[in-house]
User: What shape does this take?
Amino acid sequence: MLPLSIVPFILRFEEVKNVPVAPIREQCSEIYNTVCSRAVWQPLGFVYLYNILQVSNSAWKQFLKTNLGFSACQLNMLLATAYILLYVGVWTYKTFMIHWSWRKVYITTTLLNGVFSILQVLLVMGITFGLSPFLFAFGDDVFADFLAGVQFLPTTILMVHLCPVGSEGAR
Assistant: This one.
């Protein structure tokens, strides 16, 4: 029922028809020239390398299930809460951090992510400071998604500003 609740909003979308489209050769040339600009490839390279090094580890979920005995319900609670905190992270950036430089956002979130990575190592070693492994993993694993939410908007804003004028997504 929830997906059907958005149908009235979809019907309100307006689509501009018969918009002139540049030839493919011209579009490809413009994209090539845009990507060759240092103002484009340098931030794109940073975002690409940063995200490639932030690969989530699928073995972590298996560890939680096999070694710590988390049930499917507990894993799903982690996932659902992580998605909620991902949204809260986006909202936090939009509300409180929108005027921060993207460098400051990435430095802060990377340092906090390092702290939570150390907490994962502590969980593997069984050091949970008196908390159950589920509660410890709950705070540790879920907060990492909050940080991903905080990083999402600066990356998106950066990418939108890099779109050539007249392309989809450009202002």
Remarks:
- The chain has seven helices and no strands.
- The mean pLDDT is 86.
- Residues 89 and 149 are 4 Å apart (CA to CA).
- Helices lie at 7-11, 24-36, 38-52, 58-66, 72-97, 102-125, 133-162.
